[in-house]
């Protein structure tokens, strides 16, 4: 039986902040919701702007979500900037994706960061 929360599992919004596309994610990123996140990131990247993913309101990031971040990272000319909650930061660090992504504690810090930095 599908619960009432099924449609509220993930909310993704895209907005522009100057030359940056900001994708704000609320909810849980798992196998069921990862395609929704991937579609939003692909749409945001089509504009050719730098991408910041605000995941401060994400309570769970599963392996499917990590894969989406990896794919988005590979499509970015500059290092992908991710604003991470503890629930997001932990799996990123455990899988060493923090070697490919720039992880920030706040949206302001991510927006202020030098986007030209690239992974070593």
Automatic annotation (TrEMBL):
Residues 10-114 form the STAS domain. One of its GO terms (molecular function) is anti-sigma factor antagonist activity. Pfam families: STAS. Gene3D superfamilies: STAS domain (3.30.750.24). Belongs to the anti-sigma-factor antagonist family. This is Anti-sigma factor antagonist. It comes from Nocardia amikacinitolerans.
């Amino acid at each position: 039986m599908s619960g009432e929360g099924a449609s509220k599992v993930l909310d993704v919004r895209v907005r522009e902040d100057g030359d940056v596309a900001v994708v704000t994610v609320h909810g849980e990123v798992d196998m069921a919701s990862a395609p929704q996140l991937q579609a939003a990131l692909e749409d945001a990247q089509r504009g050719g702007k730098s991408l910041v993913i605000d995941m401060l309101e994400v309570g769970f990031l599963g392996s499917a979500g990590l894969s989406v971040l990896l794919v988005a990272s590979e499509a970015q000319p500059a290092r992908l900037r991710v604003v991470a909650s503890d629930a997001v930061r932990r799996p990123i660090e455990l899988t060493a994706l923090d070697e490919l992504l720039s992880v920030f504690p706040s949206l302001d810090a991510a927006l202020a960061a030098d986007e030209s930095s690239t992974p070593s």
